[in-house]
Design a protein that fits this description.
Elements (H helix, E strand, L loop, with lengths): L6 E3 L20 E3 L20 E3 L20 E3 L20 E3 L19 E3 L16 E2 L2
């Protein structure tokens, strides 16, 4: 793949993991892998320093490793309609995040959201998350 690539859409394929080649594109700004049977995520995303948008919706992801959040420029993260039951506390490292879509997962609780920017839009509809105890005050919850 070209090192100058800025937008890569690999949706609706049969990838079971994120292709290694897609993890080493220093100028990539948008990566879409929706509707792939991805179960396991990489523990190191540092080869994508300019990634702004990542869409992993409608995959089969059950777990997010801590190192996955090494994305210094990420603004939009879509993890909707996977099989996630928790969101690691290490998500606090995504200080540039403006949009997080977690709808359609089985989240029983969220980690503290004190790190969330007041401008961040958080989508968690169609989850099993008990909203009364989530303590979300700084993010918009759109149901």
């Amino acid at each position: 793949m070209s090192l100058t690539l800025v937008d890569l859409n690999l949706s609706f394929n049969n990838f079971r993991s994120i292709p290694v080649q897609a993890l080493h594109l220093p100028n990539l700004q948008s990566l879409t892998l929706r509707n792939n049977p991805i179960i396991q995520l990489p523990t190191d995303m540092s080869g994508l320093p300019k990634l702004i948008e990542l869409n992993l919706s409608f995959c089969l992801i059950h777990y997010i490793p801590d190192g996955f959040f090494s994305l210094p420029a990420i603004e939009e993260l879509n993890l909707s309609y996977n099989h996630l039951t928790e969101l690691p506390a290490s998500i606090v490292h995504l200080s540039t995040l403006q949009y997080l879509n977690m709808e359609g997962n089985q989240l029983p609780a969220l980690p503290s959201l004190s790190w969330v920017s007041p401008n961040c839009n958080l989508f968690i509809s169609r989850t099993t998350l008990p909203l009364r105890s989530s303590g979300v005050t700084t993010a918009a919850i759109l149901l």
